[in-house]
Amino acid sequence: MFMHAISACLSLAAPIAAQQIYDVWSTTWDRSDLFTYTNLSPNPIDFTTPGATGSADIVITSSTVYQPIIGFGASLTDSSAKVLSELKSDNSDAYWDILNYLFDPTDGADAAGFSYLRVPLGASDFSDTVYSFDDTSGDTSLSDFNINNAPSYLYSTLQDITGINSLLKIHIVPWSPPGWMTSTGTMLGGSFLDEYTDTYASYLLKCLQAYSSMGFSVYAIGIQNEPQNSDSTYPTCLISAAQEAAIGIQLRSLMDSNGFSDTIIIGYEHNWNDAGAYPVTLMEDAPNAFAGVSFHCYEGSVSDQQTFYNAYPNKNIYFTECTGEFGSDWWSDIKWYMDNIFIGSPQYWGQSGAMWNLALNGLGEPKLPGTDSCGTPCRPIVTVNSNGTYNYNQEFYAIAQASKAILPKDSGGPFGQRIESTVNGDLNWGLIVAAYVTERTDNNPWNRYSLVVLNWDDQPNGSWDPTPITATIEFQGAQATYTFPVGVTTLWWYAEAES
Ligand SMILES: *[C@@H]1O[C@H](CO)[C@@H](O)[C@H](O)[C@H]1NC(C)=O
Ligand SMILES: *[C@@H]1O[C@H](CO)[C@@H](O)[C@H](O)[C@H]1NC(C)=O
């Protein structure tokens, strides 16, 4: 009764007066702010009766609600788990500091709350050795299947992460089927042999069952990482759309009859540029097996996600891999990541955004001996040195600024959903914006509305001159004004849903 009285009261009060921005996270081009939190109390930014619009005017349409976001994050490769578990032995305080800062999703925590994690099934180019979970040639009954062919530090690290973030969406996907199911007889390149369609589907079900028996709740499984890539120096395999469809149909049926009807299958898992071909064919061939498809950044552009969306608007879109390389410019990378992935992917219907290795050393190692991938060493989210020191790279800040905006407000509450936003005004090119609503539990009518804003106005007249942009924010008939520094800003306020 008491709660009802309160909400009745709130809905009678003029909501405009109550909407205020207190919470701001900032990462600036000069690194003076690095995912730095400011509470504006006692001087919050008020939403008031609208006045003139700013030279950039952010218009939020909160009644236009788009896709839910499942989380932002990275991949836990064998190598990432190895450097992290070595750190755990050498300097366990640092290890727990890193894991908490990366993964704690609790509202109010000083942490990024990564909630999406991709985990390779078997070896990738970031493993010590080439292995699958059944390397016995011709073992079509899979009697030698053994999930413990992966190093134990992979599972212990994953256990520690899920202990911090129980909301983690785990996406498991192989870099190759067992070698004997491919044309080369090895996991190092080649193409999938049709005769093993059912065997491979059973193999993937066994992976799910093994994860489940270790206590991991798996959000999604994929058939093949980068199915259009064959490389003889690391685990890769060509699997055509028709083959992947056939495997997916069989796997879906096995999952449904073995207690995994809530786990989804994500297809494709490759570059943007082929968005109108392979993933569309996959949906045509297996419309009920796949919940959606995932994209990588290495060819094409994020707007290609629109091509797939236009063909299959009811299928999910995920963005699951891109890597930084050592030696690139910190601020240029932040701009690219926000524009193309951590704001860009949601703008083009993505429900996730993720980078590649969670952790590596300062040389981009360890890597699979002999692999030609990451010729320019790949930069992880967090560099972990063998002497126990570590540092967060630009990838971390890009992910963190996006992740913070969509985490559940309430324990047990939903993640954020994208809402409509546009930028008007002379300086509309200067701001790239994603807007989200995060609904509440317990019938709390005060949703959280958050913005992730890139101000990339760093050379307004052709020469270097980072220029803050004072923007107006239009929301439910009210207006706030905020000056965005050059960098990335995440901020939020609370308001009732538009009725
Ligand atoms: C730790 O190792 C890194 C990378 O080799 C190095 O840059 C750093 O100076 C070392 N720090 C200490 C305290 O030894
Ligand atoms: C850029 O040039 C225009 C036109 O000369 C001027 O009005 C504006 O103040 C300049 N902007 C900056 C940030 O210097």
Written description of the protein model:
The protein has 499 residues and is an alpha/beta fold. α10 (330-342) packs parallel to α12. The chain has helices at residues 2-12, 15-18, 78-90, 92-103, 152-164, 197-213, 241-256, 278-285, 304-311, 330-342, 344-347, 394-404, and strands spanning 20-21, 23-28, 36-39, 45-46, 56-68, 71-75, 116-121, 169-174, 188-191, 218-222, 236-238, 264-271, 292-296, 316-321, 324-325, 352-357, 359-360, 378-379, 382-384, 390-392, 417-424, 431-438, 446-455, 469-475, 478-484, 487-496. A 9-stranded mixed β-sheet has the order 3-2-26-23-22-21-5-24-25. Strands 14-13-12-10-8-7-6-16 form an 8-stranded parallel β-sheet. It has 2 domains: 6-68 and 416-496, Sandwich (Immunoglobulin-like); 71-401, TIM Barrel. A hairpin with a 2-residue loop joins β24 and β25. The site of one 2-acetamido-2-deoxy-beta-D-glucopyranose (NAG) has 4 residues, from loops. Residues 362, 385, 387, 389 line the site of one 2-acetamido-2-deoxy-beta-D-glucopyranose. InterPro entries: GH, Glyco_hydro_30, Glyco_hydro_30_TIM-barrel, Glyco_hydro_b. One of its GO terms (molecular function) is glucosylceramidase activity. Belongs to the glycosyl hydrolase 30 family. It comes from Wolfiporia cocos (strain MD-104).
